[in-house]
Amino acid sequence: MEGRPHLILGLLWQVIKIGLFAKISLQNCPNLAVLLQEGETLEDLMALSPEEILLRWFNYHLEQAGHPRRVNNFSSDIMDSECYTILLDQIAPDEAGVDCSPLSEGNLERRADKMLGQAHKIGCRKFVRPKDVVKGNARLNLAFVANLFNTHPALKPPEEGLPDFDLGEYGETREEKTFRNWMNSLGVSPFVNNLYSDLKDGLVLLQLFDKVKPGIVNWSKVNQKETFKKIGGNMKKLENCNYAVEIAHQMGFSLVGIDGKDIADGNKTLTLAVVWQMMRAYTLSMLQRLAGSDKPISDPEIVDWTNTTLRDSGKTTSITGFRDPAISNSMPVIDLVDAIKPGSIKYELVNCGTSLSDEELIQNAKYAISMCRKIGARVYALPDDLVEIKPKMCLTVFACLMIRAKTGKK
Ligand SMILES: *[C@@H]1O[C@H](CO)[C@@H](O)[C@H](O)[C@H]1NC(C)=O
Ligand SMILES: *[C@@H]1O[C@H](CO)[C@@H](O)[C@H](O)[C@H]1NC(C)=O
Ligand SMILES: *[C@@H]1O[C@H](CO)[C@@H](O)[C@H](O)[C@H]1NC(C)=O
Ligand SMILES: *[C@@H]1O[C@H](CO)[C@@H](O)[C@H](O)[C@H]1NC(C)=O
Question: Keyword set for this entry (predicted)?
Fold first, then answer.
């Protein structure tokens, strides 16, 4: 039981991080290109973790201020509030009246308090108390800095102009983001920032397999991170990927033409193929566990449960499968939510009718997904998945609702 609060705090932290780090990308902030160092490409920059980008951003502002110090971490390097004071002075708009006066305070805790007073002037007194600064609490200080970046990046475009690149190419697709959020919500380590580069050593995939089917991974066969730095490290990573693919075969994944090397190389198409099947397997394994069944739950069983649940609550909607055009207006999902938790849907907020506009379809889908989450279904599909009737994603929506219904929360 003792480990429990830690586990919950850990998961909560993962969720907070997902939100805080969402904006730290070239796509959201093209001016990040100014942080490129000699000889680096944009790909190099995109491969950095959000923590690394935030440190660079911090140091960039220290350099711009002509300050001699640099920070390498969010703990001992920030404890005396000196670098923070300089950073705040650099990023605050002139009219905010932020200055470096905290530096004349000798007592570190009082200095931290004054520094946070400056942060308050730009609406950023968040996440840390003076004592968290003085103690160098790494998580809380990281959150403090991430929030400063999100609200006051204060980056100008590079002098030579923004590099010529297609943002779409570097940005993350909706699907990638969903998969990443799902993994992080399960608490994998390390935190997955990039769906491809962070999966290349096989360790995250193996952790996920272990969550989908506890005990399936023989951890004594897995090479740990320490071995990657030594000679032959790439071979160790490849061995992990080969082992992950071997387990995927045991789990009955469809893996035509996929081997460990494709994962180790970060091949997008093939990595996605594995990850998608993993997410589906996880959802179905949750269902199976709840049903206390020794056989996997099949698609028709979910359809059947959906139809029955809808009919039993007097709803007129039904589905024939996960490609059913009836899913497009989200009504089956909305009705199902109301069937699971009667009265939860405000039908006056739903667009009814047979010929809805694209706008109305997406409104319904957004409402449907948000209501799924509101009644406690851990749905990770996105509104567009319903409107566009993406069968794999639609399946997960109904499966997640079924899990919610069977866990019996009211
Ligand atoms: C933080 O980085 C500094 C160097 O900038 C180093 O001396 C210190 O040990 C680091 N602290 C932690 C907790 O890693
Ligand atoms: C796990 O792998 C190790 C090393 O390959 C092997 O000796 C051991 O028998 C395996 N354990 C199980 C339960 O398969
Ligand atoms: C990834 O794998 C697919 C299928 O084998 C192949 O067509 C594609 O060229 C590979 N992509 C890269 C970047 O290697
Ligand atoms: C669900 O309901 C539809 C429409 O009533 C019907 O065509 C379909 O066969 C049903 N499917 C299952 C598995 O119950």
Answer: Actin-binding, Calcium, Metal-binding, Repeat, Signal
Find the angle CA(105)-CA(108)-CA(110) to the nearest 5 degrees: 65
- What CA–CA distance (Å, rounded) separates 321 from 329? 15
Q: Please name which ligand lies nearest the alpha carbon of 321.
A: 4
Report the Cα–Cα distance between both ends of the chain, in Å, rounded: 25
- Which atom of ligand 4 sits closest to the CA of residue 307? 1
The residue whose CB lies within 8 Å of the most ligand 4 atoms, and thus the one to mutate among 320, 322, 395, is 320
Q: Tell the burial category of 166 from Cβ atoms under 10 Å away from its Cβ (0-12, 13-18, 19+).
A: exposed
Instruction: Report the separation in Å between the CA atom of 202 and the middle of ligand 3, taken as the mean of its atom positions.
Output: 18
- Which ligand is closest to the CA of 257, given by its number? 3
pLDDT for 48-69, tens place per residue? Answer: 888 999 999 999 999 999 999 9
Report how far residue 295's alpha carbon sits from residue 285's, in angstroms, rounded to the nearest whole number: 10
